[in-house]
Amino acid sequence: MEIKRCDWVNSDPVYIAYHDEEWGKPLVDDLKLFELLMLEGMQAGLSWYTVLKKREGFREAFDGFDPEKIVLYGEDKVEELMQNVGIVRNRLKIKGVITNAQVYQQICREEEDGFAGYLWSFVGGTPVVNHWKNRAEVPATTPQSDLMSKALKRKGMKFVGSTICYAFMQASGMVDDHALDCFCRSTPSAVES
Predict the structure, then answer these.
(1) Is residue 18 among the annotated active site residues?
(2) Which residue ranges traverse the bilayer (predicted)?
């Protein structure tokens, strides 16, 4: 029997694995959510497939997306990253990651439930399960992604527009937008950490 997947998945094994094992699975780990949000920001203007294929390069270049290390980056590190062919070499996006690491630390200090609790609050702490009939019905933004975007921008984060936030919400499982006939469609299960 043929496995049904969302129609945006191409035939590349990397993309299939990402869809089957990660996309839309509820994620509540602060650091993993930070990494995913930074990668979504790097994707702005590009395809997610481009970023996904460079993900390991990003992890290596940005010290595993460890905010404690990233906040210490200076101009020398920015220049080094600008020469790294394993990542998206965009100065504004690179500097945005540094700024966002600082904001991440601020949110973790201020929020009792940490970064994950703060982000999940925009969906009431529970995944939103949508029932779109086809990909054309899936919105680029929602009221929840608008609120998340505005709140993160107020705190000083960069590359967190509503479209980026909605893609992040889909990827992190805050929203289940798997096609109705996709084998990954939401079933009652534990939230991943």
Answers:
(1) yes
(2) none
| CA 15 to chain CA mean position, Å | 15
Q: How far apart are CA 193 and CA 191, in angstroms?
A: 7
Residue given tokens 């650091």 in the structure block: 31
CB-CB contact of 170 with 121 (8 Å): no
Handedness of CA 7, 147, 45, 75 (dihedral sign): negative
Nearest by Cα to 36 from 192, 169, 179: 169
166 catalytically annotated: no
The one catalytic residue among 40, 73, 104, 166? 40
Q: Which of 18, 22, 49, 111 is catalytic?
A: 18
CB neighbours of 26 closer than 8 A, spacing ≥ 6? 127, 172, 173, 174, 191, 192
Transcribe 61-72 into DSSP letters.
Answer: HTGGG-HHHHTT
Question: pLDDT (tens digit, 9 = 90+) per residue, 153-186?
Answer: 999 999 999 999 999 999 999 999 999 999 998 7
- Give this prediction's pTM: 0.94
Q: Is 8 a catalytic residue?
A: no
